Amino acid sequence: MSSKSYLIIGGTSGIGECIVEKLKTPENTLYVGSRSAVGVFNKNIKNFKVDVNKKSQLDLLPDELDGLVYCPGTVTLRPFQSLREEHFRHDMEINYFGALSVLKQALPYLKKSANGASVVLFSTVAVQLGMPYHASIAGAKGAIEGLTRSLAAEWAPKIRVNAVAPSLTDTPLSQHLLNTDQKRQNSAERHPLKRVGKPEDIAEMVVYLLSDKASWITGQILAIDGGEKGRQIGQTDWQGIFDRIDAMPMRRAEMGEKAREEK
Ligand SMILES: NC(=O)c1ccc[n+]([C@@H]2O[C@H](COP(=O)([O-])OP(=O)(O)OC[C@H]3O[C@@H](n4cnc5c(N)ncnc54)[C@H](OP(=O)(O)O)[C@@H]3O)[C@@H](O)[C@H]2O)c1
User: Fold this and answer.
1) Residue 141 is inside which H or E element, if any?
2) C-alpha 134 to ligand 1 mean position (Å)
3) Is pLDDT at 220 greater than 50 in this prediction?
4) Do 117 and 158 contact (CB within 8 A), yes or no?
5) In angstroms, what is the span from residue 10 Cα to ligand 1's centroid?
6) Pocket-testing residue among 76, 171, 201, 224, ligand 1, by greatest number of atoms within 8 A of Cβ
7) Whole-angstrom Cα distance, residue 57 to residue 247?
């Protein structure tokens, strides 16, 4: 197996931590940054402190990077009336501007990857689905989706850029949404696959997108969501729609009949 270098921002918790676990092999070198990152610094793992909100410099990047994953994110759920400008700005700062800063710094190293590099960003299923109380986070992640497609076009063929869009996943970030049995059950129920996500569900896709197996995939937003995005389609009353279409000529005929009677 060839050796690769990966930068994982936000690799110390939840999905990012799981990605680090999966990429941890004797061949790979992982650069893992977060505000709380401490301790591990050896040949294969280099943990370092970084606060993406403070535009920290990523000083210890290697000569070339084969992959970058940007994990920091937020879950700000409020009705639109109670969202203040600071909520929108905070969500944009961490989800979007933080990613921009890291991408700008990492680009020269990604360009040097011998076999082409892969970038994975994070959106949320709420962007495509449209969910109440998600205006702030969906706005910030919507920006990530646009950025993903733009950079995929701009950086091809050397660098692939994709995003994953999870639904509710059991991590420290989402604990306030899963901290009672009732909440957990309700959340599981609204997914066609009847459970919330596990960090591994998402990490598997990220690791795949980083790998050479995904070498013909770029510019995609992949929903990893227990069927949540398809739920609206699943719930659409197609039979009712077909019945109405079938009935239309009859209705028109009925209406014509009625009009003639009225004359
Ligand atoms: N969990 C869900 O239900 C869910 C659903 C949809 C989308 N997502 C998205 O998936 C991604 C990963 O979420 P997660 O649930 O794994 O989150 P998480 O458990 O909160 O992990 C986030 C990671 O980012 C780091 N981080 C946060 N703020 C940072 C900052 N200012 N500078 C540097 N690092 C920072 C955290 O470490 P420190 O705190 O030590 O800095 C941590 O390592 C996020 O983008 C999130 O929006 C999650």
Assistant:
1) helix 135-155
2) 17
3) yes
4) yes
5) 6
6) 171
7) 65
